[in-house]
Amino acid sequence: MNRITGKVIIAGAGPGDPGLLTVKALRAVEDADVILYDALVNTTILTYAKPSCRLIYVGKRKGCHAYPQHVINELLVHHARSSRVVLRLKGGDPYVFGRGHEEYTHVAKHDIEVEIIPGISSAIAGPACCGIPVTHRGTSESLWVITGTLSDGNFSSDIKLAARSSATIVVLMGVSHLAEIAHVICELRSTAEPMAIIQNGTTNQQQAVKGPAYKIVELAEQYEIGAPAIIVIGKVVDIADAFHFLNLQEANLRLAV
Amino acid sequence: MNRITGKVIIAGAGPGDPGLLTVKALRAVEDADVILYDALVNTTILTYAKPSCRLIYVGKRKGCHAYPQHVINELLVHHARSSRVVLRLKGGDPYVFGRGHEEYTHVAKHDIEVEIIPGISSAIAGPACCGIPVTHRGTSESLWVITGTLSDGNFSSDIKLAARSSATIVVLMGVSHLAEIAHVICELRSTAEPMAIIQNGTTNQQQAVKGPAYKIVELAEQYEIGAPAIIVIGKVVDIADAFHFLNLQEANLRLAV
Hints:
The structure is a homodimer.
Chain A: E1 7-12, H1 23-31, E2 34-37, E3 54-57, E4 60-61, E5 64-65, H2 69-80, E6 85-90, H3 100-108, E7 113-117, H4 122-129, E8 142-147, H5 158-164, E9 168-172, H6 178-188, E10 194-199, E11 207-212, H7 216-222, E12 229-233, H8 248-255
């Protein structure tokens, strides 16, 4: 079998807090000869790499991809042919809207060994860092994780089915569609349905607001909460302690209905 | 402020593979004076505890809880009053069907400092370790994580809404309801809808089968796949390489439709 000696590891870097990296991913960072990393990877993690490790940023710059996906795929193969360990480090989990499987498939078809290391998804840790349990007995017994923007650029129709369910909904990459999402929730759940927007969750830049569906667009604008952020929808949002949120007391006063 | 010196940390131990513990949770294990752990926590993780650390098993024995939830809550408070660091180590993530928030609330109301450390959920890492990406562009752009058994013992009605969506569905604690789940999927998606059952995912006891919805109950019985296991439903199941699954070639031959 014509195996190339280099190996590719596709690992999740977790939601932002470097302490939420897995032990396995940390070992991979320490061992890597080349690391290709995304915009959402906390660069503190890269300080654990060997001095000789080559660090290649392949994320977005000013909204534009530094490299399109097919070039990233090619870079993985290219470096695996001249390095022992190539680490592809992705924000969150590589299989939760991470295009990890596209990279896996491309590398594997070149007969290069490839390993997947799951990471903590911001879909779960993002709410947790604001005190929101995505499930809680008697409040919510399911969790729907959805992307705000489909690969064809459209808005997912699944959001309407999700709104009809009792699930906690977490929308990733959905801030640019916030008004549409809040409208669907007002229509299919209630104008009072609790929503939260969490920007840079689990990091020291974390900012979050919460409020009823009918007011959430205004709150996000007022407190300038924008991408990268997740949207959390459901009764579990109201479980969270207020201190995690920006000026919540003021917001609560203004929002009293 | 009448703060007690002890601190409680509620941490996810991840899906089984000790390497999937977070760096933060590993530090907590090393630092803890008392660890209360569940049945789904890989005991290899406990070998990183200090020799003086007191290890208390609070999981299920032969289907019965060693301690009911209110006793676990009390134990956390009790030990925090005489120890510096009390670690509550839970399988997967404490906020994904983990009752983590019930423990958090109980400890916090006793004015004891409490910290949550998210863990990798088997809902994402379980499929990944069998080569199943829970999302994949063009195949599935949302993920619904649901419990097979509600806290009132009933079967969740959300499964029917989930079946009508295009989401990848991951059912935790659902093996005892497998026949009902497969029936709903046959009725609302298709008899050919790909399903997988993954037992002890990410560990060296991992076993898994996959097949169409109409045959999955028979396959699970034939290969004796039972709890603790997760059920994965959706087109992404067919993306997985066959080698992760038990006797798949044979199963495929027999299942040819």
